[in-house]
Amino acid sequence: MLNPSWRRVVLKVGSALIAPDNEGCSERYLRPIAEFIRECRLLGREVILVSSGSVAAGRHHFNFQHHRVPLALKRAMAAVGQNEMMNFWSRCFDFPCAQVLLTHGDLSDRVRHVNVQNTLRRLLDHGVLPIVNENDTIATEELKVGDNDNLAAMVATVCHADALIICSDVNGLYTADPNKDPSAKLIPEVKKISQEIFALAGGSASAVGTGGMRTKIEAAEKATTQGVDTLIADGHQPETFQCLLAGKNPGTIFYAQKNPLPAKKHWVRHTLRAKGEIWVDDGCVNALCQHGASLLSSGIVEIRGEFESGDAVIVRCSVGKRSIAKGVSRFSASELFSIKGQQSQHIERCLGYCPNGSNAVIHRSEMMLLERI
Ligand SMILES: Nc1ncnc2c1ncn2[C@@H]1O[C@H](COP(=O)(O)OP(=O)(O)O)[C@@H](O)[C@H]1O
Ligand SMILES: N[C@@H](CCC(=O)OP(=O)(O)O)C(=O)O
Predict the structure, then answer these.
(1) Which of 78, 110, 171, 223 could disulfide-link to 228, CB 3.0 to 4.6 Å?
(2) How many Cβ atoms from other residues are within 10 Å of residue 284's Cβ?
(3) Domains of the chain
(4) Where, by residue number, does ATP bind (predicted)?
């Protein structure tokens, strides 16, 4: 529902709403969504639109019938579809729209992240509607976010939104995929996103959707742990938007956590990608999990992957191979090979220098214990 305290809202619109018939963009669902955006702005809410659909909108220009589209062709479809989609949205409004195309690197690199933040703020200050999508034309598997649910949650945290509304082809989270199980029941509210909630979520059943319910729960977890209420609602139904404007919940609401994660920890957990693994012994696991300690070289038994100082890594327990934590390593993989198992006071002797004036391999302020293992 449109809570009166929400000043800034990120609205995510899925591909099936943009191009429902595989024949390019359609006005069918976009008009009521556009009307909702207009109403929100009249009520003094700032709106950022995250619009999927570039590939779905561009597809009809290419004579390609198979379900699995090769990446090079997807990029071409996205290039033409993005243009059509922006034209469509622009025609719906009597205020200016701005195209903001992002990849994962734009959000995980500090400088680019700040640039995105400042640009969005300027656009909103000047009454422009930012319309965000992944930059699918250039994105590679390693560089892309991969789905717009997670992208929308990242945008919501970048711009300090109060709410994220995900408009889909389903009106919320069900106890099972309602397209497969007709007895599935809608869950109207979720206070905490647990392992059980993740277990309910399946993939996409549509020809154009990307992540299904799973990426929506991931997005809700990203957003709610940064203080952003998250709602999943059915964008097919004009009543959804009437409900929202009337302050009612038309789908599933995931409540913002009362104690949001500190920004640095949220960034490590939800934005940075792990480049390698540090395997540690039982004593180290105990120090990290029971005593909130920093990770020291003495507990390290193995290093996997190539990473530099400042990269994120996963900490794994050598016994049971569980993932324990994610954090920013202050040493490169090659430095860690030389100091693993050593007491901190011997680091300088092993390396011939102490690279960052600190003995912690991962400082506790830059480490998140992983609840989901
Ligand atoms: N537990 C669940 N509750 C609701 N929908 C689910 C669930 N598990 C899987 N789904 C599927 O997720 C789909 C929505 O995701 P998706 O197709 O990616 O849409 P969008 O294009 O809006 O992102 C639904 O149509 C449904 O088939
Ligand atoms: N960036 C892609 C959409 C990716 C995506 O997540 O799609 P969807 O599941 O429909 O929200 C595109 O514009 O085609």
Answers:
(1) 223
(2) 24
(3) 8-265 (3.40.1160.10), 273-369 (2.30.130.10)
(4) 12, 168-169, 210-216
Q: Would you give the DSSP letter of residue 62?
A: S
Ligand 1 atom 23, closest CA: 14
33 lines ligand 2 (CB under 6 A): no
Please name the residue ranges forming H helices in the chain.
Answer: 15-18, 27-42, 54-58, 71-92, 104-108, 110-125, 148-158, 195-200, 212-224, 238-245, 263-270, 282-291, 333-339, 347-351
State the pTM of this model: 0.89
- Residue 314 reports pLDDT greater than 80: yes
- Read off the pLDDT band of 217 (50, 70, 90): very high
Beta bridge partners of 101: 133
CA–CA distance, 248 with 244 (Å, rounded to integer) = 5
The pLDDT of residue 208 is: 67
Please list every protein residue whose CB sits less than 6 Å from any atom of ligand 1: 14-16, 168-170, 173-174, 176-179, 200-202, 204-206, 209-213
Which tokens belong to 326?
């994610």
Nearest residue (by CA) to ligand 2, atom 2, is 52
CA of 123 to the centre of ligand 2 (A): 23
Binding residue numbers for substrate:
52, 136, 148
Cα 243–chain centre separation: 26
Atom number of ligand 2 nearest to Cα 204: 9
Give the whole-angstrom CA distance, residue 171 versus residue 178: 10
Separation CA 184–CA 174 (nearest Å): 6
Which residue owns the Cα nearest ligand 2 atom 11? 14
Binding residues for ATP, as ranges, are 12, 168-169, 210-216
